[in-house]
Amino acid sequence: MGGALKRYGFEPDYAIPPGETLREVMKSLGMSQKELAERTDLTVQSLNRIFKGTQPITYETANRLELATGVLAAMWNNLEAQYREQLARMHERERLQDDLDWLREIPVAELVKRGVLSRLKDTVGQLREVLKFYGVSSVEAWRQIWESPAVAARRSPCFESKTGPASAWIRLGELQVREIDCRTFDRVRFKKALKQIRYLTREPVHVFEPEMRRLCAESGVALALVREMQKVPWNGATKWLTPQKAMILLCLRGKGEDKFWFSFFHEAGHVLHDSKKDLLINDGSQDDPREKRANDFAAEFLIPCKYDDAIRRIRSKEEIVQLAHELGIAPSIAAGRYQFLTGNWHYFKELIRTLEWANALQVL
After folding, report:
1. Would residue 356 count as lying in a domain?
2. Residue 26 pLDDT > 80, yes or no?
């Protein structure tokens, strides 16, 4: 798929009713309309409507036509189905034509680049493909899901200015975790999983990434890793897909391992403490009390605040590594806490591993 330009064959902007074929059959048989009406026990008026396409050929009528003309009922049924399908496509195009401006809100070029959408010459066809990506039949349906007042009241304020990119990023997460087989959410099991994942922070990516996915899934939480959207400064998001399945969505914004782990435990805090109706996006702000609570949870879970004074007094890399060893966490997390507490953002940078996207399939 990728970014290749997809070309479709010619699609007519008109529909030919099966009654036209019926006229040709009548002519080839030398049969008048009145005679066909008598042979099929249909009225002349009914045949007129069938000729015009205003009256459908029902299964019963198709059977009658087969007996009267020798043309199989299956052909009449197929012609009728094709005609109605083409009419529906024409009506759909007319309806979608009014919503083309909406495409400007959606990062279509970015989604094409990621291989999620095909790039189409036909703008209405492009709109249809974007709607299919979101799993909705109309722009109005999309707005009900992503922009309605009831939805807006339950999500982070940062969503409002970038609804298109935000919704696209979250939708990518939804599609990624659709096939993840999760157990029913269990709060106690998830808390135990978080303790195990905390110890996994010391491991390399190829070890911790599949294991944290597994531990989350066994607790009823699907973990999605989706490349960040351009110009949208979000670190993570939490959304309940069903009352028994939560999604934690993460990216690698900043690429520092300490930020990745803080974002994960921040979202875990949302799963444990906030409403299942909330759609929460972490943009690093503290304006929303839910975000502050999630920040406090992540900070305390990774390094209890009682260590903060000791961390401020650290003067060497060896002290950072020793503290991390005592706490059972990656040195990068301790180094990140030191930078946060002191404002010395360039200190101990060598202890913070950099995470990179391995490919375009939204995995670490």
Report:
1. no
2. yes
